Amino acid sequence: MRIALIVIGVVVGLVAIVALIGALLPVKHQVTREATFKISPDKLFALISSPMDFPRWRTGVKSVEMLPSGGGLPKWTEVSSDGTITYAVTQSVAGVQLVTTIADRSLPFGGSWTYVLAPAGSDSTTLRITEDGEVYNVIFRFMSRFVFGHTSGIERYLKDVQQRA
């Protein structure tokens, strides 16, 4: 019985420490990564702006359901290894820039990804992705910062683009 109480106390103590550290971290963060691909800006833009094709090339994306959108910009629900998340395109300039935002306010995180495409020589494009993220839950904020890393999603995405481009 005494060992069980000690184990419970240690677990509660660790959770309290994780929550305290998470509470001390900022809610908002910004990270940027970029890579250059042997593909034209127009073809790369077509790849990253076609949600229905994501399950064919993005790691962990199982399905995509397109939703009615306001203003003519795409909106979809994505089922992936990260869960079910609804996204909306909030800005789109063909071949140049795309901004997607998490449209589901019930999640413990939110924010946007800004994709900027720049020509990089003959038939090559540099893709720069900036995440303006927010993590509301203090436990998830700790995990996002110290376990998963804020850049892990972008880095995985760029690897997926590399394999597809």
Can you offer a commentary on this structure?
The protein is of the alpha+beta class and 165 residues long. The protein has helices spanning 2-24, 41-48, 54-57, 138-148, 152-164; strands at 28-37, 61-67, 75-80, 83-93, 97-102, 109-119, 125-135. The chain has a single domain, classed as Alpha-D-Glucose-1,6-Bisphosphate, Chain A, domain 4. It is 36% helix and 38% strand. Strands 1-7-6-5-4-3-2 form a seven-stranded antiparallel β-sheet. A hairpin with a 3-residue loop joins strand 4 (83-93) and strand 5 (97-102). The relative contact order is 0.21.
Topology:
Elements (H helix, E strand, L loop, with lengths): L1 H23 L3 E10 L3 H8 L5 H4 L3 E7 L7 E6 L2 E11 L3 E6 L6 E11 L5 E11 L2 H11 L3 H13 L1
Antiparallel strand pairs: 1-7, 2-3, 3-4, 4-5, 5-6, 6-7
Helix pairs in contact: 1-4
